[in-house]
Design a protein that fits this description.
Helices cover 89% and strands 0% of the residues. By secondary structure, it is mainly alpha-helical. 0% of the residues are buried.
């Protein structure tokens, strides 16, 4: 069953896919230029790093625009419920991160004891 979020999700995924394809093609071009000697390895890395940062910024901007557009279709009550659900999900992720950090610390401590 389709719902109002499906078009927003599809637009977001299409944008992310386009950015990923663009990043792959850009990396191929940079690698070719480095191989030809038209670009140093350090210059290629710097350009690739900047392009990755730009792509991440654009992805975040696109995500925010889609969330805002979706929220504009909601009532106040729906927005409040959405915000509460996002807070719950963030708490779940925070808890999982804390558990991973604790497990990593335990593994590190066990390794140091050996």
């Amino acid at each position: 069953m389709a719902n109002v979020t499906d078009p927003f999700r599809q637009i977001f995924l299409a944008g992310v896919g386009a950015l990923a394809i663009g990043a792959d093609k850009t990396q191929e071009v940079l690698d070719t230029l480095v191989k030809r000697g038209q670009l140093t390895v350090d210059e290629g890395k710097e350009i690739a790093s900047q392009l990755t940062e730009d792509a991440n910024d654009k992805t975040a901007e696109l995500r925010d625009d889609i969330i805002k557009a979706q929220m504009q279709t909601m009532t106040k009550e729906q927005r409040d419920a959405f915000a509460a659900r996002v807070a719950e999900l963030a708490a779940d992720v925070d808890g999982a991160d804390a558990m991973k950090a604790q497990e990593a610390a335990e593994v590190q401590a066990a390794a140091e004891q050996q």
